[in-house]
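step: validate -> pass
step: tokenize input -> pass
step: predict -> running
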Amino acid sequence: MNKIVKNTWILTAITLVAGCLLGLVYEVTKAPIAAAQESAKQEAYKTVLADADSFETYDGFEESEAADVLKGAGYSSDDISEVAVALDKSGEEMGYVITVMSHEGYGGDIEISVGIANDGTVKGIEMLSINETAGLGMKATEPVFKEQFKDKQVEKFSYTKTGESGENKIDALSGATITTNAVTNAVDSALVYFQSELGGSVNE
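step: predict -> pass
step: emit ->
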């Protein structure tokens, strides 16, 4: 019996010490991890809105309100998860970076950051997470596809499989229409939120 009690106390002591050590490690590494995550986020923002000097979280953003805006516009398969304000060197607002999660991808969810200037011009898009088919849907990560959205001031985009021209036309990825549709809708979702909540219509 004494041996059982002794072993129980030993195991209890080991568990307590291990728990304390894990808590200590967490506290020590929490700040550096948060700093690294923030740095990575800033770099991603810079990719889609290169003219900005810095970015701050948009305090007026609420996920539920954004969901209602998208649903009302017919984009119920997308979610906006984050909005950042882009600032120039003087601290003036010059645009926004809107992060959208599309649930329409062929291989799963696709997370995209969309940079939009104050006048409604899309300055760039970047895939934050994507798991589409290699050689097909994964071509959405390539510059030749992403740059079709760059520096375009349109109310919404649509894709074409026939090479149809127009500022708002995106050439579909060969053999990856589902991915093309998901990305295009995600960018349009960002534009809808911008036009409804942030900057107004590009036609105003």
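step: describe -> Residues 1-48 form one domain.
step: cleanup -> pass
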